[in-house]
Amino acid sequence: MPVYEYTALDLKGKTVSGIIDAESYPAAKQKLRTSRIFPVSIKETRKTVAKKESRFSEIALFQRVRPADVAIITRQMATLLGAGFALVPALDTLLPNTKAPGLKKTLAHIKDSIVEGNSFASALSLYPNVFTPVYINMVSAGESSGTLEIVLNRLAEISEKQQALKSRIRAALAYPILMTFIGVVVLILLLTFIVPSISSIFVDMDRVLPTPTRVLIGVSGILQSYWWILLLVLLGLIITFNSVRKTEKGRYFLHKTLLGLPGIGNLAKKIAVARFSRTLGSLLANGVTMLSALEIVKNIVGNVLLSEAVDRAAKEVGKGKALGAALSEGEIFPPLSIQMVMVGEQSGELEMMLEKIADVYEGEVESTVMSFTSLLEPLMILFMGVVIGFIVLSITLPIFEMNQLIR
């Protein structure tokens, strides 16, 4: 459906602008007049030349909304509501300044749904791929309690903290990943093109070559002759991994294996616990009941084992057990997090304690990643040095032997 940007006058003669979707230009004009807005100018933002292009533009890849864009629009919405804007005028103000096409179209549909009489939360629920259950439920709680501005500010803070942590982790891992990629490419080029041209000199020697040289020539020959088999094996592993990850048993096996890995498993657990704690604390602080909050949170922890532990805890809480005691039965959550939850329950400040748990584990994750990357860089240099040294040694050993024979 085409999307139109408009400038119009309301009943008070005030100029308003926004975005609207309609079947055609006359339909857009009529839709605005029905809303008691009188258009001055209407302009289609994206023209569809052919049906094929229209279908192509609807592909999820081109309509994808990034979490960072949702965080920005949430912060802007909270600011406008805090400045005294009503919900629909706030959306009208945001729409022309929204750059992401997918988000712009989504906001236009949400505004139309609100104008038709639906609540903000129910309008958001029409787009589960853009707005998470946590987001929708917190907005619903904010509308019910009249604290939508506060809730949106809180959602913006959560999103910004999560995005900041992801950005810091990505920045820390970017250099090692880049160096690994470059190192692998250099090694493949050496073994595939450089080494064969040099080792061909030694093949004609009527002597037994040193073991390192034979190993190097063998590896180089395998890469030259069977590189396509290695590529097929790599693609097969990737396809198998994606297929296994899509099944319930496969996800359980992968997540259990991940948590069992030394170092990495502990890091993955801390990330999941931090996400669980921050989300649960925010839901409880905004009026969502404990059982409803646990039902929502179990779907966003990102690990099947922890999700099952939260589900079991929710059932125990429903029977009257305290949250800390219920979580401790699964033996999945770290003891420190359980103790802090128990202290929060006893002091009546569970929401604040959950926030502290998230801060603690996010800080530990960041420091662990930084320490890991600072250790990884010299290890990579050492590894590359050993490999290059092996190649150089394998090439020079026959040369030394030839020099000794000449003497």
A few lines on this structure:
This protein is mainly α and 407 residues long. The protein has helices spanning 25-34, 51-57, 60-63, 67-82, 87-94, 101-115, 120-124, 133-145, 148-203, 211-246, 248-260, 264-285, 290-297, 304-318, 323-328, 335-347, 350-406, and strands at residues 3-9, 15-21, 38-44. The chain starts with a strand and ends with a helix.
Structural features, described:
This protein has helices at residues 25-34, 51-57, 60-63, 67-82, 87-94, 101-115, 120-124, 133-145, 148-203, 211-246, 248-260, 264-285, 290-297, 304-318, 323-328, 335-347, 350-406; strands spanning 3-9, 15-21, 38-44. It is extended. α12 packs antiparallel against α13 and α16 (335-347) runs antiparallel to α17. With 407 residues, the protein is mostly helical.
- End-to-end gap: 86 Å
Instruction: Give the overall average pLDDT.
Output: 81
Q: Can you summarize the main beta sheet?
A: 3 strands, antiparallel
- The CATH architecture term of the largest domain is Up-down Bundle
The number of domains is: 2
* Strand-residue proportion: 5-15%
List low-confidence stretches: 46-62
Q: What would the CATH topology of the largest domain be? A: Receptor-associated Protein
What value does the Rg take, in angstroms? 30 Å
